């Protein structure tokens, strides 16, 4: 119902008091004139409250008509599914990187064991060629073969170490995904806060704020404001009595 | 290819910067500077003489694509090759980066040889 329509309905009451006011003023009846003016002001306030009440009812009916409950469920289902997929990705990547690291480490340890064997065989050859023994001299061919084995092991070890380093890229990918999930949770939280602000009970403006210096936040005023920090979310919730 | 080129590595994750630095050093590049986003990288580029930028896409404050566009829009910097190393796998994004003037694009996670191959390719193209 519009303001004009409400005023039109009140017109006879206004006219009646206006005529009485004119008469009172002409007859110097000041008290009567003041009373009539107050009555007219009261009439206007009454119309305003009627209009506000009507508006509130219409908004409530509109929101109810939107079937918000199913939409909330749908939103929660979609967002939860999205978050679940992303967190599953985090779990998979972490698992894969751990396996890659362990595989490379186990292979490296095996190579270290093989290198130990080569070193031991070199020691044995040196001992066999020490003065006073009857063994064949330490041949350049066997030395070359031993060095080639060590070189091969060293290259293999380097490759495994590089694999371990490269596997750590998972931290970047996982970190990005976790950031996205956190953002998603924040968005859902904000949507729910706005929803509560839109549909929750009207806050009594006479009720003082719980915290000094923090005004009680009217739900309708916060519905369109964007908040970016957790503290702001908490303030809104506190203003709603949470 | 000269191994004494100056390289700027831009990534918001210190782990990834460390991995790229490690790989570059393994490849023989030792003049490496790091920046954690485009906002930090741009003044470094303007202040120094860099020969290659290796940048991530998704970063706070200024992302890699914006950095790339600013580099290409600058008379002083536009000649510097830019290699994008990113997890952004969408075709459209790769096309956007290409149109913005990226020299090459590596998808994370990448293997150890990929970085060498891409840098080599960038300089081969520049020399031809």
What does this structure look like?
Chain A is mainly alpha-helical. Among the domains of chain A are: 3-65; 71-172. Chain A is rod-shaped. Mean pLDDT of chain A is 73; it is low at 203-234. Chain A starts with a helix and ends with a helix. Chain A has eight helices and no strands. In chain A, 79% of the residues lie in helices and 0% in strands. Chain B is of the alpha/beta class. Chain B has one domain (6-127): Rossmann fold (3-Layer(aba) Sandwich). Chain B is 46% helix and 18% strand. Chain B is built from five helices and five strands; from the N terminus they run E-H-E-H-E-H-E-H-E-H. Chain B has helices spanning 14-26, 38-47, 64-73, 91-100, 112-127; strands at residues 6-10, 31-35, 52-55, 82-86, 104-107. Chain B has a five-stranded parallel sheet, with helices on both faces. In chain B, strand 1, helix 1 (14-26) and strand 2 form a beta-alpha-beta unit. The mean pLDDT of chain B is 92. Chain A binds chain B through residues 162-163, 165-166, 168-173, 175-176, and chain B through 11, 13, 15-16, 19, 22-23, 26, 58, 87, 108-112.
Largest sheet of chain B: 5 strands, parallel
**CATH class group of chain B:** Alpha Beta
Poorly predicted tracts of residues of chain B:
none
Q: In terms of quaternary structure, what is this? A: heterodimer
Q: What is the alpha-carbon Rg of chain B in Å?
A: 13 Å
Radius of gyration of chain A: 42 Å
Largest interface: A-B, 12 and 15 residues
CATH topology annotation of chain B? Rossmann fold
Net shape of chain B: globular
Q: What structural class is derived from the secondary structure elements of chain B?
A: alpha/beta
Mean pLDDT of chain A: 73
